[in-house]
Q: What sequence folds into this?
């Protein structure tokens, strides 16, 4: 279902999809950069939501502020972090006792790594994280990275260096660019494996 949730920073457009049967938790998915066409309908974000739902998780995909029907203006990851935290706080009473996963693509991975430092989540999946564009801190929770070996925006060397320094498992999709054209099935398989971890 597509909702507009009233949060302190304004209304945020959000798609919530439930799995078959009792959910095992809630997965929050963040899309890429709002000023470069990123929306909740981005195909990588959509693929992550499909993987979460297929693995038994409620999949929550908001539009960042200023995108689609979400109010507000782009805030370089700061306001976006606050919005996601407020969204989780608003939704948590509807899913009492269920754990949370975070998944983010590109700029969305940057925002989610900030959220993970402030909300109790099980783990974080970063896809194509923009580590050469933003200051990524050491991960606050168990983290996994998926990255294309031929990423034209975020060179894989930077991601390898970050992953090695932080001890983060890195899954490289051989030959894939930043948007994983023609390789989304591999992203989905890796994301499902991530979601199905105990």
A:
């Amino acid at each position: 279902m597509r909702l507009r949730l009233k949060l302190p920073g304004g209304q945020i457009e959000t798609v919530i999809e439930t799995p078959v049967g009792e959910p095992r938790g809630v997965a929050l998915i963040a899309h890429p950069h709002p000023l470069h066409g990123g929306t909740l309908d981005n195909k990588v974000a959509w693929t992550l939501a499909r993987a979460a739902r297929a693995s038994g998780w409620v999949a929550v995909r908001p539009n960042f502020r200023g995108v689609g029907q979400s109010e507000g203006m782009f805030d370089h990851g700061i306001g976006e972090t606050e919005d996601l935290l407020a969204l989780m706080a608003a939704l948590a009473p509807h899913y009492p006792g269920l754990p949370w996963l975070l998944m983010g693509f590109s700029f969305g991975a940057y925002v989610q790594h900030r959220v993970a430092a402030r909300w109790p989540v099980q783990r974080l999946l970063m896809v194509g994280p923009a580590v050469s564009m933003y200051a990524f801190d050491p991960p606050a929770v168990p983290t996994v990275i998926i990255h294309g070996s031929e990423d034209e925006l975020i060179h894989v060397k930077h991601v390898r260096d970050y992953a090695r320094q932080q001890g983060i498992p890195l899954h490289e999709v051989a030959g894939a660019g930043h948007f994983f054209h023609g390789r989304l099935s591999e992203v989905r398989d890796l994301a499902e494996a991530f979601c199905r971890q105990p």
Summary: The mean pLDDT is 97. Residues 2-195 form a domain with the Rossmann fold fold (CATH 3.40.50.1820). The helical segments are 43-54, 78-91, 107-115, 156-166, 184-195. The first helix runs from residue 43 to 54.
